[in-house]
Design brief:
Blueprint: H1 11-22, H2 25-37, H3 41-69, H4 73-80, H5 89-119, H6 130-136, H7 139-157, H8 160-187, H9 193-200, H10 209-222, H11 229-235, H12 243-271, H13 281-293, H14 296-331, H15 336-356, H16 371-398, H17 401-408, H18 419-443
Helix pairs in contact: 1-8, 1-11, 1-12, 1-14, 2-10, 2-12, 2-13, 3-4, 3-10, 3-11, 3-12, 3-16, 3-18, 4-5, 5-7, 5-14, 5-15, 5-16, 7-8, 7-14, 7-15, 8-12, 8-14, 9-12, 10-16, 10-18, 13-14, 14-15, 15-16, 16-18
The structure holds tryptophan (TRP).
Length: about 450
């Protein structure tokens, strides 16, 4: 089977696809509002540490399993630990991405709809209540969710090389360019420097356990960890590629992009005299107001902005769908087309419930949460940390150190000096850090 598997065309392609998965709604939509809710620069500081001490080791763990095992979570685990129960971890990694995709596609749909709103000049007049009206309605968000899922399925149908690789190679550089244009524009607004200050001058008294746990959770989400996405992508990497370098570049570009998104949003928020701690509505509620205040240029900036979110979301959603498709194709012998259509449809159906949970189905609650929030919490607070914990335990304690070294150093040809430190992070620090996330989710 190994011979027939597709691989990425090279290291750049692999990094772009991984960065494409990492950079998404987590960066543009989630990161800015979390910064606003958790104390600005202080949160960013904690987030930096969480990325490199907690998240990156998990990335390495997944990459080691994926490339060495040469397959999806089931087959990779079965190959590395034959006959053990570890392969059943595959269940988390097939289910969690599909659950995630269902509500991710709903927010992806919001960006489709907002792009449409921007193009049709709907951000020029009074925008108050625009987000509330939109998400509580029935058909408009559903239609947008459907369009977003259809785009996602179309890229996956085209395959790894022609679909994922081509798409991300074109869109990722474009995305950086667009966001930089928006940042530069935002900085020209009068009063925007207050937003810059908010992002760079940390008030350390704002740091508490909750802020730390939130930052760790965000690092997980943003780097696409714990649910086998990175594992699956790493299995498409060639043996001669350096996974430590790929992980580091991915984490750096993900971080850079989150910061750029922060600088695209916060200065504009401060310039408009709006409170930064709005929560999830920050991008979809606050920004349209700001765009409407910019007169002529507002529409152009709005189009650029929501187009950027849409691209970023798509390169992530395709990675979510690919995990399940790889599983069905390789383990169950399904065709790529059938796997894609069945999984996209299942995820779409769940997404319908998520979308409706803001409006007509708001009264249906699971454990005190609407369907959307329930799935988000299930994935971000539980399944991803659980997956991350098991991956690091597997690599740190179940695999032999010699095998891990062989994989991370490409048979002793690179990363020899840093291997010791990386190994300690994977074996000790990351599992302890994840345990902290768990405990705080349980207790807080
Ligand atoms: N990282 C993406 C974002 O920030 C979301 C994502 C894609 C993801 N694939 C994932 C999150 C796998 C967790 C696991 O938007």
């Amino acid at each position: 089977m190994a011979a027939s598997r597709e691989t990425f065309g090279g290291k750049l392609a692999a990094v772009l696809a991984m960065a494409g998965s990492a950079i998404g709604l987590g960066n543009i939509w989630r990161f800015p509002y979390l910064v606003g809710q958790n104390g600005g620069a202080a949160f960013i500081l904690v987030y930096l540490v969480a990325c490199f001490v907690l998240a990156l080791p998990i990335f390495f763990a997944e990459a080691v399993i994926g490339r060495r095992g040469g397959g999806n979570t089931f087959s990779a685990m079965e190959k590395l630990a034959p006959g053990s129960a570890w392969k059943w971890m595959g269940l988390i990694t097939v289910a969690a991405p599909l659950l995630l995709l269902s509500y991710y596609s709903v927010v992806g749909g919001w960006s489709v709809d907002y792009l449409f709103k921007a193009v049709t000049l709907q951000f020029t007049g009074d925008t108050s209540g625009i987000f509330e009206r939109f998400i509580t309605s029935t058909w408009e968000p559903l239609a947008a969710h459907t369009v977003f899922m259809a785009f996602t399925a179309a890229v996956i149908l085209a395959g790894v090389k022609n679909g994922i690789e081509k798409f991300t190679k074109i869109t990722m550089p474009l995305l950086f360019l667009l966001i930089i244009v928006i940042v530069v524009y935002g900085l020209t607004l009068p009063g925007s420097w207050k937003g810059v200050e908010y992002l760079v001058r940390p008030d350390l008294s704002k740091i508490n356990v909750n802020v730390i746990a939130t930052a760790m959770g965000q690092a997980f989400f943003s780097l696409s960890l714990g649910v086998g996405t990175i594992l699956t992508y790493a299995s498409y990497m060639r043996k001669e590629d350096n996974v430590v370098a790929a992980g580091t570049y991915t984490a750096l570009s993900d971080l850079l992009f989150a910061l750029l998104a922060g600088f695209a949003v916060m200065p504009a928020v401060f310039a408009a005299g709006i409170q930064p701690g709005q929560g999830p509505g920050l991008v979809f509620d606050t920004l349209p107001y700001i765009f409407s205040q910019m007169h002529g240029a507002g529409t152009v900036v709005a189009i650029l902005f929501f187009f950027s979110i849409l691209i970023a979301a798509l390169t992530s959603s395709i990675s979510l769908l690919e995990v399940g498709v790889a599983y069905l194709v390789e383990e169950k012998g399904w065709s790529r087309k059938r796997s894609t259509l069945v999984l996209a449809l299942a995820s779409w159906a769940l997404g319908v419930l998520c979308s409706l949970s803001f409006g007509p189905m708001a009264h249906v609650q699971l454990l005190g949460k609407g369907f959307f929030d329930f799935l988000d919490s299930l994935c971000s607070d539980w399944l991803m940390p659980l997956g991350g914990l098991l991956f690091t335990l597997f690599v740190g304690w179940r695999m032999s150190k010699a095998d891990v070294r062989d994989e991370l150093t490409n048979g002793g040809t690179c990363n020899k000096r840093i291997f010791g430190a990386v190994y300690i992070l994977v074996r000790y620090l990351a599992p302890i850090g994840i345990a902290v996330v768990f405990l705080s989710n349980l207790l807080l």
